[in-house]
Amino acid sequence: MAATMTTQLEDEARASFQEDIRSLSPLPPTNGYSHTLDSESSAAETRELEFPDLPPFPEDVSTVPLLRIKLSKLLKGDEAEIDRLWKASCELGFFYLDLRADTTSNNGVRSPEVEELSHNVWGDDAPATPTKSESTNGQINGHTKSLEVQIDSEKLLKNVDELFKIGEQVFDLPVLEKVKYDLKSKGSYFGYKGYGDGIVDSKGTKDRNEFYNVSKDDILGLSERLPAPSVLESPRPIIKSYMQQSHAIVSLILRLLNSRLDLAPDTLPSLHRLHAISGDQLRWVYAPPQPFDDRKTALGEHTDFGSVTILFNRLGGLQVLPPGSDEWKYVKPLRHHAVVNLGDAMVKFTAGILRSNIHRVVNPPGEQEDHTRMSLVYFARPEDDITLKALEGSALIDEKKKELGDEGPEISAKEWILKRALGRRAGGNYEESHGTEARRTDS
Prior knowledge:
Elements: H1 2-16, H2 39-49, E1 68-70, H3 71-75, H4 79-91, E2 94-98, E3 118-121, E4 137-140, E5 143-146, E6 149-152, H5 153-171, H6 175-178, E7 191-193, E8 210-215, H7 216-219, H8 236-260, E9 281-287, E10 299-302, E11 308-313, E12 318-320, E13 329-330, E14 337-342, H9 344-349, E15 359-361, E16 373-380, H10 395-404, H11 413-423
C-alpha cells in the first residue's frame, strides 16, 4: 500500500509539473495546456525557480515529489487544482504553493498582460472597503458567498524578502541581548530560543539552530505587547502585513478542505479566526553551517503542532519521511513558492483523513552546506479555547471515527501547543512533546 501511494505521488508530480522538481529537467507538459515547452522556455522556467544569489541545489540527492499547487487557480475555483490540493492534503500533507500570477489564458496561450494577483477569498476579517480586488462571487457547499478577504501574493513575496533581511538583523544581535527575550521562564514559547537550547531526541541531544517567534496576537493588538529587541519595532507593519496575507491563504485552504470534507460552511475557518486569541506566530529559524566532521540534525523529527504551516526557505535542509518509507527525502526550495504542510490539529479535527507528516531539518546539501540556512514560517493554529477532537457533521469524518475508536483524552489547542513547544526545550519533557510522529522511536 505504501509503495503504491509513493508511486501515485510520483506519477501525479510528473504529470502536473512542467519540469521534474528533482532536477528541473524539461518534460512534456500534460497539465492541459496546448503549447509545448521548447528548450529556451524551459531553461527560463528553471532559472526563475532558482535563487540567483545562492549555490544551486544539488541534482544528485533524493527529493520528495511534492505537488505544485497554483494559488491563482485555487482562487478561481479550478476544480482540477482543488482536487490536487485535496490529494496532497490526504496523502502526504505537504505541497508547494506557487504564488506567481497566472500569465496564461484558459487555452494556454501567453497573455500580453500580467494578471494582477490580488483576489478575495471567503472570510470575515476583510477590510471594510476592499481595494485591488475582483468583484466576483463564489460557491462553497452550495452556498453563494461574497468574496471578502484579500490575498495579494506580490505583496506577500515582497514582505518575505524584507523579513529575511530583518531576520538577519535579529540574529546578528549579541547573544546577551537576544537572551533577554527568551520567555521560556514565563511559560511562553514566543520570543527567542538560543542555539542548542532545544532537544532533538529522547537522549537530550541539543539542536543546532536559533528561533525567534513573534505572536500574531501581539502584532494585531489582541494581547499585551511582549518584550522585543528594538530592531523589531519599526518592522511591525511589515510583520502585520505578512501575517494577514499568510492567514488569508490559510483561510482559503481551510475553506476548500472544509468543502471536500462536506462540513457545514465555515466550520474549519471559524476555528481559526484572524482576530481571535491563538498561538499563531511568525518564526525565523537561523541555522549556521555545521563543522564538516560533526554534522548532526539541526531540528529533530516532528510533526507540526497546529493546523497549517506556510514556509519560505532558500537553502535545502528540510527533509520529509514519506509514508511507509525509512528514507528521508529533501524538499527542494523553489523561488516564488511556499512549502505548505498540515499539522496535527487537522489530523485530530478529521479523525486522520488529512495528514500531518513527519519532517526534520539537517545541514544543507552539496555546495549549499557552507551557507547559513534561514527560514521564515507562519504557523496557523486553532484558537486557544478550541478542543482538539474530531468534528461533527461530516459523514466522511464519522466513518473514519468508527475505524479509529477512542480518540483519547480531550485537550485544548492552548494546552496542546504549550505542552509540545516547551517539551522540546532543554529541561522540558520530551516524551510529552510528541504529536502524531510518536509512532516512531528514536534510533
